[in-house]
Amino acid sequence: MSLEKPPRQRYATDESVDYDAIEELLGEHVLGRETHTDTEAFVIRPDEVQDVLFALRDEAGFDHLSLLVPQEYEDRYESIYYLTKYDDRTQEVGIVVPTAKDDPVSQTAEPVYRTADWHEREAFDLVGIEYEGHPDPRRILLPETWQGHPLALDYDQDRPQIVTLAEHENPIADDHYDEDTDTMFLNIGPHHPATHGVLHLKTVLDGEQVVDVDPDVGYLHRCEEQMAQNGTYRHQIMPYPDRWDYSSQPTNEYAYARTIEDMADIEVPEYAQILRTMSAEFGRMMGHFLALGTFCLDIYGDFTAIFMYAIRDREKVQDILEDLTGQRMMLNYFRVGGVVWDVPEPREEFFEKIRDFLDELPVATQEYHDLITSNEIFQKRTVDTGVLDRETAKQYGVTGPVARGSGIDYDLRRDDPYGYYPELDWNVVTEEAGDNYSRLLVRMREVEESARIIEQCVDLLESWPEDDRQVQANVPRTLRPDPDAEIYRAVEGAKGEVGIYMRSDGTDKPARFKIRSPCFHNLHALPEMAEGEYVADLVASLGSLDIILGEVDR
Amino acid sequence: MSDTPKRTIHESSDPMTKTREARMGDVDSRFNSRLREAFGSSPFILTKFDQFMNWARGSSMFMLQFGIACCSLEMMHTYAVKHDLDRFGSGVPRASPRQADTIIIPGTIVSKFAPRMKRVYDQMAEPKFVVNMGSCAISGGPFQEGYNVVKGAEEVIPVDINVPGCPPRPEALLYGVVKLQERISQGESAPVTVKPYELEQFGDLEQDELTEKLADQIDTDDLIMRYNWADSP
Description:
The complex is a heterodimer. By secondary structure, chain A is an alpha+beta fold.
């Protein structure tokens, strides 16, 4: 078996990060050093957050704030900032900021990373940590009038709450009103065809132009983190990832599978890795077809032909995944240490179905190009509208097709390899313009790359020796990672970097489970793209971001 | 003779009686349908007005375009090519609640959204009908124990039919909608259930610890929805 590559090696933390040098760089700011399962972390004082983060961003090159984890311990509150680099995703560092139990105040990181704005609002909302100097310290997911912080330790879930349904006022009326300009406040959503679900955009218009837009999320906050914290690692958490990004389920399942397997040190059989990779790419296709269909819905108006074309292709992918998993949407195909079962019998028939689909795909893609990208009206609506430049995108922690549409060459499948991706031949797609059109192009070209990956996976699965088709590693019935083990791991979902932070307390359930959702960050960048544009372009920009509210609100 | 309804239709559909000729005038024969021939010269169908209205309602339902969560994707598939809800006369989604008489609730309802959903429901044209799609809309589903999740749409608005599943397949939703149409055309309606979570004015609430705490944030005229999580099932 000398040909077999040891998969554990790929998951190990990259040794190229010199943590001693970082410690030296931070100097006296460092109070202590922790080792997490995936990275090293430095403990710092709550009033020195900005100094430390500025040093790490400007001198050590950590330009991507991937996740902020707020949590409450018995004796303290803690915020962990997970930093990494857009140029080299394998370089990671954690910054741990403990704050006192009776006065949980920590300095804001918003001036360093713009994306910390929403992160810290969420941390205040759900856990109750306050961030000094935060520009906009409101609740984000729960209603303004909510009492208590649900993920804090002493929260009583049974107490009554009151939620208002007040009229909205013009938030910038005082600043902007004068004789010449007359602004109008317009609510878009939470029930509106253009919001792709239950999103509320508080928009201020000057004529047709957007002066100010404030996305108001939380209309689908389904307590996913609490649900995961109530479930056991082995079986009870896996159904929930399906319901975060419900347009491309396997990629989310991959995020949880990868995290728990790294944490519990489980090695996945190679055959199962191929099955996972294949289903994840089908998931990406599903997500992108929906994105394409609904984007054109936004541009063209009603349930029109293009939407039907996209749904037709999505239906084919769902059909294949249904054959594979037994479910149409909530596939629940991944298991800790592998997948639930092998491809359906007769295998030839299943592979033939996939090949038929792949053979028809170039024709379908050409149809899309005829209908959409070469359409002059479509180009008028999307080219050079909703522009998001590279540096702004990085500030907002934008990932996935939105980042790649702005020319950021960042894809976790290549940059932080997992699964069977490193063995396969495919390309990361980027576009330079950063407008609505290029984000659509990236998705369309990514579907073609996914097809390439699937084709190679099918070849491998077909030729795999029959007695070596192992779909599941040997996993203990009850998983109990070491107490205080902490891990943050991410994979490339259809919308971008889907990550999970878990902390173990030695039981069979996680003590803290935090989800990094790509849509949350992508949506945060919407005002940058829409302000100053026409309101119709705001709708187009929102469509081009391809947000899934289940993942934004979690 | 053709003044009695025929059991089977054969031969030509030319007008056969003088009465009919006079009534039809110089109409092109292609307007003279087989249905008309079946009815004979008498252009009347006797039925009760209520029955007729119920039949009309059940046969042309206007659905509200309303997406909440995962189920809304399966709902879109139900409207689209393969399943095509429009075959049953209920497939044109309306973007405004004022043009719709049926709402499908496809997803989880949380505290922040429930008052808004109630407002959308209230704006719909009467008589209106509700299809609950999926476990979340029925009971909160997999998220029932969440701190923020309303345990089913029935806590907020009356529901006519429940389609179980997580999410239900498009076929299941089709079946649910067709069953609802069947019931509407037979004049059946669901009993209006007790709704624990009503919209009310903040000023009308009993004074307790919570209302006192919120008194300086909420205007007395503001509409609010009060959640008593402990009492909901």
